[in-house]
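Input record (Table S2, row 432):
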Amino acid sequence: MHHHTLSNRFFEKAKDLIPGGVNSPVRACKSVGCDPVFIEKGEECYIYDADGNSYVDYVCSWGPMILGHCHPHVTGAVSEALSLGTSFGAPTWREVELARKIVDLVPSIEKVRLVNSGTEATMSAIRLARGFTGRKKILKFDGCYHGHADSFLVKAGSGVATLGIPGSPGVPEEIVANTISVPFNDRDVLQAALEQDGHQLAAVIMEPVPANMGVVLPEDGFLEFVREKTIEHGILLIFDEVITGFRLAPGGAQEFFGIMPDLTCLGKIIGGGLPVGAYGGRKDIMENIAPSGPVYQAGTLSGNPLATAAGIATLEVLERPGFYENLRQKTEYLAEGMVELAKAQGIPCVNQRIGSMMTTFFGQSKPVKNFQDAMKSDTELYGKFFRAMLEEGIWLAPSQFEAAFLSLAHNWDAIDFTLEAAELAFSQLKVS
Ligand code: HOZ
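Output record ((4S)-4,5-diaminopentanoic acid complex):
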């Protein structure tokens, strides 16, 4: 039986000082019926909590740690940068190097601006789309999450879905009146929305593979349909690849599916575990950003020396031959193993995966193709599974509506250990 004495003590103190005791709502373990553990350190695919318990980590900091924790190439690059100074608010060569890598790797990006988080990337991309087109409205998809800026908190996924928050107080109605949200994978509803409001839409923003309502795959032809229709209506297509960027392929989902958006938002992996975001795309659009153009966006710490060092080092490793195939094989083995074990115990669930990300939706028997489907999952059962896995030393996302990520550091032993834990966890779900 794991003890969480110190974690519990820290959490009690944290609750006095920090809202909900956490600095991002998704870290609270409310929806899975326990309190968060406090992490002391990470090493390869393992994290260790304050009480000395170890876990195989499938959260990977919600995506960035695609090389695992403390990869020597990354820690070496950050240490080197650290000794030279942590921030100047003036240009540094690494920013150019990271920008060059992004432009080389991501098919549709010709120019890129670095920011500090995915939220900054999406809110800036929307401002740019509005400035460029002279239109106000945007369209998103139910259950997609694009960070916490006002315009996106409409039928949003991730923590908003986990906590069951329908819309957020503090977001003016006038702002969300400009956001239309439609179901993912539904061409008819999208077509009707575009026929009605297409001429007023600055952008359609989407996670090409939604991963914030759990992993949901685009049906054959859906991304192509969105691309075609946005061109037809003069609307910019923004891919939010904060999760899928460098995760599905070096060039993200746009490389994986061969679709060219106008703008792309990035984050997570490009920071290699430090705070970085980016947005980029067609040169003629990006040229509208200040100081080249009039659309204003800025940041004291943008392009920070430590963050760019970590980002560059991370991208260097994932460009190595066989990187993505290795991740895919490990994910396939884990996912198929889990499905088989669940089946053997009669636990109803559906596993959806692509590349090195996956979600097991509990209480489902058919593919989950949109937010409405995802919300029918048995979150109680997921909570039980989460707690049983935690007890066995496996760290999963504390929510049904998130993805599990594998990293380069997840070795076969760790994955087999995970399957043994899952077998035990499933057997407990059966008896309770
Ligand atoms: N996209 C992340 C969860 N799916 C966000 C993490 C956070 O909100 O802290």
